[in-house]
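Problem 12. The chain below contains 62 residues. Write out its predicted structure in token notation.
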Amino acid sequence: MSKMLFKPGKAKTWKGVGYDWKIVSEDQISEHLDAGWLSHPDDLLKRGRKPKAVADESDDEE
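Solution.
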């Protein structure tokens, strides 16, 4: 049996979060989970999103 695993990436987007995916055989699941892959896409949301860069704007008025 095989299983689809997920990790943050750019291949697809789900609920506003980018992710990569891979299908692995059952005997490789624990190896991939140890390497940072996730077993369910909801786990992508739990990891949090990286904040977007914000331009440095100064409020100094002279």
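Discussion. DSSP finds two helices and two strands in the chain. Students who got a different answer should revisit the alignment rule from Section 12.3.
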